[in-house]
Amino acid sequence: MKDCVIVGGGPGGLSAALVLGRARRSVMLIDDNRPRNAVTHASHGFLTRDGIEPAAFRRIAYEEVLAYPSVEHLQAEVADISKQADGFEIVMKTGERVRTKKLIMATGLKEVFPEIDGLYDFYGKSLFNCPYCDGWEWRDRPMFLLAEEPVILHMAKLLYNWSQDLIVCTNGKPLLSVEERKMLEAKHIQVIESPVVAFEGQNGLLEQIVLADGSRMKRSAGFVIPKWQPKADFSKQLGYAVTENGGIATDAMGRSTIAGLYAAGDAAYVRPSQLIYAASDGYKTAVTVNTELSEEPFA
Ligand SMILES: Cc1cc2nc3c(=O)[nH]c(=O)nc-3n(C[C@H](O)[C@H](O)[C@H](O)COP(=O)(O)OP(=O)(O)OC[C@H]3O[C@@H](n4cnc5c(N)ncnc54)[C@H](O)[C@@H]3O)c2cc1C
Question: Of 5, 18, 41, 43, which is best to mutate to test ligand 1, by the most ligand atoms within 8 angstroms of its C-beta?
Answer without folding.
Answer: 43
